[in-house]
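Pipeline run #58 for the internal structure catalog. This entry was flagged by the ingest filter as a single-chain record with no existing model, so it goes straight to prediction. Upstream metadata was stripped on purpose; only the residue string is passed forward. Reviewer on rotation: M.T. Logging verbosity set to normal.
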Amino acid sequence: MATRYWAVSLPVARGSSASALWSRLQESISKNAFDTPLYRFNIPNLRVGTLDSLLALSDDLLKSNNFIEGVSQKIRRQIEDLERVSGVMSSSLTVDGVPVDSYLTRFVWDEAKYPTMSPLREIVDGIHVQIAKIEDDLKVRVAEYSNVRSQLNAINRKQAGSLAVRDLSNLVKPQDIITSEHLTTLLAVVPKYSQKDWLSGYEGLTSYVVPRSSKKLHEDNEYALYTVTLFKRDADNFRNKARERDFQIREFEYNPETQETRKQELEKLAQDQETLKSSLLQWCYTSYGEVFSSWMHFCAVRVFTESILRYGLPPSFLSVVLSPSVKSEKKVRSILEGLCDNLNSAYWKNEEDGGGMGGFAVDADAYPYVSFTINLI
């Protein structure tokens, strides 16, 4: 699939026709740049309005195009991210089931959605409002999904970190903890290289430690987790003495109900993440099609507006889309320029140094015909 197209319009000379110019263009491209896909870009006769309204609209077209293209790329990137984290193979993006490149190269104006008798400004503003609403909706949906994902990632980080910081609830069993009127069990995080020191010295840290009560529950790359049972009244003193020997006593209270609640919360978050991810991906597929369709109608308005301002009235031009390879670009530009043989286009050729574009919204490079780039990616 080509990812970059030129939208171009060429002036039809007096006494000729768009069909005759199309034949000449096809012949020139096939002879001199045969690797360049070329298609008619069928634009209906739109409502012209006044020259002032066209000039005012032209001033806004480039800015509006950048906005619409930007939203299109945002949704495409979101789709790529979601497909990657879901392990889904990248699918061809479509507009109502039609691949986007085919939608462009076989473009048909949607009269029901954009009546051709509507003022051009009304069509452009309607598209802008629609795309802005989709962008706002995207932000809300992504924020909702990202919030749940962040919560789940935070929990997973706690469970995956070192024993000094991770959640210990899934490492400690009920039988590991002794709690009575006088006794309590503490959890000590001991550096791996200090385990011998712990085992030989924990009983002597204070006077009220139950002998041989320490048991190793878990070990990671940095630390080992031990239990120790002692009299409750001595717990604070033991914490202080342990800290002096670089043994960390973790605050932990075993509660079966809390453990079950945490487990359910984790399962619900994981389920919510999958639901939101699937919903967001489907919404992105649909919304990308809507944005792309609106964008192509906007491009048609842009070609029409610039062509009227460039070539004058009545509308008499050939609009096409083509996708030359990098090595063929100069050749194709030369072919297009050679077909601009009316007086208006000659004026544009001779104004390279004088800023002869008249302030019209075109790409940075000025040509003696209307031309701008459509980047699908």
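catalog note: The two ends are 11 Å apart (CA to CA).
catalog note: Residues 180 and 232 are 9 Å apart (CA to CA).
status: ready for reviewer M.T.
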